[in-house]
Amino acid sequence: MEINFKNNKIAELRKEKGLSQRQLAKELDTSQANVSRWEQGLNEPSIVECWKIADFFDVSIDVVCGRKEY
Fold first, then answer.
1. Do 25 and 35 touch, CB atoms closer than 8 A?
2. In the chain, where are the structural domains located?
3. Strand partners for 3
4. What is the pTM of this model?
5. What is the three-class DSSP state of 67?
6. Which fold would CATH assign to domain 5-65?
7. How many C-beta atoms lie closer than 10 Å to residue 24's C-beta?
8. How far is CA 64 from the centre of its chain?
9. pLDDT tens profile 22-65
10. CA torsion angle for 69, 47, 18, 35 (degrees, to 10)?
11. DSSP strands (E only) in the chain
């Protein structure tokens, strides 16, 4: 099993909802800089943040984290 957060789908999911990074950050109670770093794969959100992201977009954590295999 490989989880590569650099393949995360946060930017794609955010754009599908028509949200800016700032708007998403507000929804997730974090900073726009954090959202930017997550989308670029520079930082990884904590497990709690992954849950929030997954819940907000109504997807699995696997999608958020870019998991390739099940």
1. yes
2. 5-65
3. 67
4. 0.84
5. strand
6. 434 Repressor (Amino-terminal Domain) (1.10.260)
7. 23
8. 5
9. 999 999 999 999 999 999 888 889 999 999 999 999 999 888 87
10. -110
11. none
